[in-house]
């Protein structure tokens, strides 16, 4: 249990996370069921996990959804509710208290949780488009994931998903900018493939664009629309830095918005590459 009153298990994905794991695990005082699912780490991830009482299993990474589903289907968790974390994420006492209250009496199968993106010692309140929700708490059995682009999405009807208000902290840059760019180079390939698949057979959820009461649906509809827009890197920068007021986050906000525009440009270029290959033209 996460504290003396709340019973949840924790499923924590990791790869070479000896530096991040102590902060993540130390934020879970009293938790009696933490399972670290490791991607064949070459550092001391295993030793750090076990020294703090976590169980440790290994499976090579395929996709985020595949790895989480494998763990949910394979590992025997102690509790019905499972909290999903990555090693560079940290829960707060306020979030733990809200989880405790939420699962005490609910008909939901899962809950969305917002996150605070941390960069250069600062919370990117505006530039990182807070609150950005992900389903991270669910019943087992019940919650399962499907892979979409580089990330996962819950395989549930929205009516079965509740929303928590307290965020967890996401230290996405804890391994440095080189690691961030390397990761987003991989992510951009997956996002380009997902975008092309959507353009071939999908449409825009026009009603979802106006779904103010359902921020997750609205965010997904905006992403679907963005696949069809010109000048996407510039539009993403303007959206994050101007419309979402990323300029209020100071220099870290400017840096982050420019980095995400670069990431968008990588996706666009890789979509162009896919089109060329499909037409049999040289890249």
Structure description:
There is one protein chain. The chain has 283 residues and is of the alpha/beta class. The chain has helices at residues 21-26, 45-51, 64-74, 93-104, 177-201, 215-226, 232-243, 250-278, and strands spanning 9-14, 34-38, 55-58, 81-86, 89-90, 110-119, 122-123, 132-139, 145-148, 151-154, 161-163, 168-170. The strands form two sheets. Strands 1, 2, 3, 4, 5, 6, 7, 8, 11 and 12 form a ten-stranded mixed beta sheet that branches. The chain has a two-stranded antiparallel sheet with strand order 9-10. The termini are far apart. Residues 1-5 have low confidence and may be disordered.
Question: What are the SSEs and their pairings?
Answer:
Elements: E1 9-14, H1 21-26, E2 34-38, H2 45-51, E3 55-58, H3 64-74, E4 81-86, E5 89-90, H4 93-104, E6 110-119, E7 122-123, E8 132-139, E9 145-148, E10 151-154, E11 161-163, E12 168-170, H5 177-201, H6 215-226, H7 232-243, H8 250-278
Parallel strand pairs: 1-2, 1-4, 2-3, 6-11, 6-12
Antiparallel strand pairs: 4-8, 5-12, 6-7, 6-8, 9-10
């Amino acid at each position: 249990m996460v504290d003396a009153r709340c019973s949840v298990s924790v499923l924590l994905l990791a790869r070479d996370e000896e530096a991040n794991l102590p902060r993540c695990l130390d934020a879970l005082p009293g938790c009696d069921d933490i399972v670290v699912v490791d991607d064949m780490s070459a550092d001391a991830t295993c030793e750090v996990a076990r020294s703090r009482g976590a169980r440790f299993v290994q499976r090579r990474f395929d996709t985020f959804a595949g790895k989480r589903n494998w763990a949910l289907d394979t590992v025997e968790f102690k509790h019905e509710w499972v909290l999903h974390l990555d090693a560079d994420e940290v829960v707060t006492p306020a979030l733990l208290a809200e989880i405790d209250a939420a699962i005490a009496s609910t008909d939901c199968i899962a809950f969305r949780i917002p996150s605070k993106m941390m960069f250069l010692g600062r919370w990117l309140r505006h530039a990182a488009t807070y609150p950005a929700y992900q389903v991270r708490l669910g019943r087992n059995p019940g919650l399962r994931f499907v892979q979409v682009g580089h990330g996962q999405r819950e395989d549930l009807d929205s009516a079965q998903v509740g929303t928590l208000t307290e965020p967890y902290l996401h230290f996405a840059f804890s391994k440095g900018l080189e690691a961030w760019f390397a990761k987003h180079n991989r992510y951009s390939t997956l996002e380009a493939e997902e975008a092309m698949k959507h353009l071939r057979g999908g449409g825009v959820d026009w009603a979802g664009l106006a779904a103010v009461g359902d921020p997750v649906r609205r965010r997904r509809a905006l992403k679907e629309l963005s696949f069809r827009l010109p000048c996407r890197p510039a539009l993403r920068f303007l959206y994050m830095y101007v419309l979402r007021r990323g300029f209020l986050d100071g220099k870290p906000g400017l840096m982050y918005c420019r980095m995400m525009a670069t990431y968008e440009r990588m996706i666009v270029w890789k979509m162009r590459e896919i089109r060329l290959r499909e037409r049999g033209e040289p890249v």
